[in-house]
Design a protein that fits this description.
about 55 residues; mainly alpha; about 70% helix
């Protein structure tokens, strides 16, 4: 339960979605999906950097 709360606080409802299974290769992604992945990557990087400098 604690992990669910942490996931929700970190990423909202999207963080709680089931992501198991095969992921699409880079070629199969739409431009919108690629942008969402890039945004997610940048947000995680920002979170990591904030934690380092805290």
């Amino acid at each position: 339960m604690y992990q669910w709360v942490r996931k929700y606080e970190a990423g909202g409802w999207d963080a709680l979605k089931d992501r198991r299974g095969r992921t699409k290769s880079e070629e199969e992604l739409t431009s919108e999906e690629k942008m969402k992945l890039e945004i997610r990557r940048i947000e995680k990087e920002n979170e990591r950097l904030r934690a380092e400098h805290a």
